[in-house]
Amino acid sequence: MEKETTHKFTIVYKKNTNVVCRFQISSHSIIHSEIHHQQKKLLERKTKNQFAMGYRNKSLVTKDQTISSSSNCESLSDAMLVFTMNIIGLPVDVHVKDGSVFSGIFYTASVDDRFGIVLKQARMTKKGIGHSNVGKEALIDTLVVQSKDLVQVIAKGVTLPGDGDNGKITGEDEEAVTPKVCCSENRSVDAEQVNQSRQAGDNNSKGKADDCRQKFEFHSEKNDEKIQSLDSGHEIITCLGQVKADKANDQGSERSTSPDSTSTHSTLSEDLSEASHNIPAKIIEKSAPRGADCTRNAKEFKLNPAAKIFSPSFVYPISAPSAVPTAANMVYMPNSSPAPNMVYMPNSSPPVHVATLQPEVGFNNFASRPSVPVKVSQYGNLTVGNAGSGSQFSQPIVGQLAHRTQPLQYAAHYTPVLSEPAYLQSNSPAVMAGRSTQLVYVQQVSHDLVHGVTAPFPTRPLLNHVQFPKHQGGAFSQAIPVVMPPSVITSAQQQTFAFQNHIPVLQPGFSPPRPISIPGSNGFYGTKFS
Amino acid sequence: MAMESGSSVNNNNPDEFAVGCFLSIRTTLGDEFEGQVVTFDRATNFLGLLEGSKHGPLRNIRILSADYIKDFTFLGQGHDPLPIDSHLDLHTLQSRELLAIRQAEAEAERIGVGVSSEAQIIFDALSKTLPVHWDKTVIVVMNEVRVSSPYHSECVIGGTPAANDRVKKVLEFERKRLQLRG
User: Fold this and answer.
1) Domain assignments of chain B as residue spans, ordered by start
2) Residues on chain B touching A341 (C-beta within 8 angstroms)
3) Do the Cβ atoms of A332 and A180 come closer than 8 Å?
4) I need a surface site. Which of A14, A496, B10, B87 has the fewest CB within 10 A?
5) CB-based contact, A4 to chain B, within 8 Å
């Protein structure tokens, strides 16, 4: 094989010496022209055909495979196309045959006639030996380099989709996830619009904060409306939520600029959870349509670019349980990572994270909520064990928050679940019992959870959430802080259906905050419980 | 075209050729580099190469016309670096492109056309403290004060007295700093 390869190259090389000579004779032509919309469209069309469906094994697995591949057979190969697509929008250096080098943004490639490329905002960085119609000093809005002039294109500092964890996504998930990605991208664009002069990296945090705030306000207004229509009695709570939401946003806009401040996040999450918490809770109590939740989640996601994680599964489990399994796999990673390319998180690692995060979230909600006491009491009545833990929860929470770096989103997501006391009651007995034992045996806990899930109750997610706090309580075995985290993890993994639903939501919780939070919570609870 | 003749050598799976190979390549223009072959497109005779460390997240992508390969050395065989399930999101690409172009435009606006390098340095210095833009060779500060060549404090014209004074002050300060540095 290798030998053959070499052989081929040799042939190419020999032939090329002639080709090169011929090129040198021909006149140098670099055309400065307007955008080649046709070329652009052509590339996009081709890509849409192929990549929207996924690119596998250098050939398309979709039904259109034969069509697309046959129609494009004389143009660029699929692999080359993917490869080329990877550098769209990146700064590149283009070497042309007279030795000139142009730097610009790779705009598109013309693949129907060999391999021409189009650069945006190009500038000649090195003057070649030939005479060209492009001066060295001028900035060229759109530069078309034809195939015959093109020697090479170099893009530096590229992250390939296959590198690292973020690039991969399975074929089944991609359709569902893609729209979310769009959202995130739109958001970043918006941020950019707010302040065009900022650099991409810097403005992400700042711009997002602004963006987030606007949208969140909008969002809370919407919620307000909904609630009012549902029940006027809840208006007060809603208002409170709004106020807190604003506060949270203020903090967010101020602090989100410094990613290092972990404590900030914790306070944020607290406030936000309070704010958004009330609203969804009411909605659920009123048995509002689940669809509303879906839209709300989507909005929230947009609102909070920095902290939020989007989990499509959360929405689905409620409305359509059947969809859950697939949904659970899809995880969206917020933009925090510098490289815009990386959007997707593979599902493999998240389970562990989820487990650790969940307990915290649940606790948070309880503690932070002003209205919680009522619910807790309900809770308590149902199960004796619970009541005790419930009251304790609220106290510990404060301490936890300080340690925690949780993003805002968690709280928002959880809220609906927490707010449903009625469901808890019915389910709670079994759960409670499980809980007490859970402290020691993680596995048992998971079983209990499963039980709850299998139960016909429509509010499965609630059960899970409730249990999580319990887990923590159980987990509190403060004496062995180290032991705790593992147990939680195992439980998460074992948990079947119910957990998975939540997982997507939880996943957003990033791994970095976890290590801190767990030990903190453990120690905390340990003291409380002891 | 050249490749087509080459493909006759290995008809059974032309796509497999060279993918994953690590090559050290010299071009006819004198470039020399090492890279891994990601793909080769016979129709266009372009070679897709990946450079950089295997484990580092950032790589260099090079798309090279095989016509300009002067010489190459086979260094070793590796795996196909392109993931099997490769997925590109068009929206991501589009927004990235949009961002990049906007940024480039914004940066391009900061560069004066037909001005001396000293003028550009002064502009850059002023831009750190005040909003400035070019109006041909004139630096416009805060949309009201104009600083024309040779960009001394006497050249500061227009604007409210307070703004004018402020610009003068900053200009003098920046010039002083530049002199110290230079």
Assistant:
1) 2-77, 112-181
2) 92, 96
3) yes
4) A14
5) yes
- Give the one of A55, A104, A196 whose C-beta lies nearest to B87's C-beta: A55
CATH architecture entry for B2-77 = Roll (2.30)
Nearest C-alpha neighbor of A103 from the set A115, A94, A114: A94
Output the CA torsion sign for A109, A110, A114, A119.
negative
Calculate how close chain A gets to B106, using CA atoms only, in Å.
6
**Residue A256 DSSP symbol:** T
- Which of A2, A4, A5 has the highest number of chain B CBs within 10 A, making it the mutation to test binding with B? A5
Q: Do A82 and B104 touch (CB under 8 A)?
A: no
Contacts of B4 (CB under 8 A, 6+ apart): B42
The amino acid sitting at A389 is S
Residues of B in contact with A156 (CB under 8 A): 58, 60
- What fold, for A27-155? SH3 type barrels. (2.30.30)
B2:A15 CB<8 A: yes
Q: Which residues of B touch A204 (CB under 8 A)?
A: none
Which of chain B's residues have a Cβ under 8 Å away from the Cβ of A339? 57
What is the DSSP secondary-structure string of chain B?
-HHHHHHTTS-S-GGGTTTTEEEEEEETTS-EEEEEEEEEETTTTEEEEEES-SSSS-EEEEEEEGGGEEEEEEEEE----S-SEE---HHHHHHHHHHHHHHHHHHHHTSPTT--HHHHHHHHHHHHHS-EEEETTEEEETTTEEE-TT--GGGEE-S-HHHHHHHHHHHHHHHHHHHHH-
Determine whether the interchain pair A91/B100 forms a contact, defined as Cβ–Cβ distance below 8 Å: yes
Kindly report, residue by residue over A301-322, the tens digit of the pLDDT.
Answer: 344 333 333 333 333 333 333 3
Mean pLDDT, rounded, of chain B: 80
Confidence band, pLDDT 50/70/90 cuts, at residue B29: confident
Cross-chain Cβ contact B87/A105 below 8 Å: no
- So what's the ipTM on this one? 0.75
- Per the model's pLDDT, the better-predicted residue between A210 and A170 turns out to be A210
Closest CA to A439 of A483, A499, A495: A483
Tell if the CB–CB gap between B96 and A88 is shorter than 8 Å.
Answer: yes
pLDDT (0 to 100) of residue A24: 26
A146-165 tens-digit pLDDT:
888 889 999 988 876 654 43
For chain B, say whether A21 makes contact (Cβ under 8 Å): no
**A:224-253 residues touching chain B, CB 8 A cutoff:** none
Q: Is the pLDDT of residue A72 over 60?
A: no
Domain ranges of chain A: 27-155, 171-195+204-249+273-529
Residue A60 has pLDDT above 60, yes or no: no
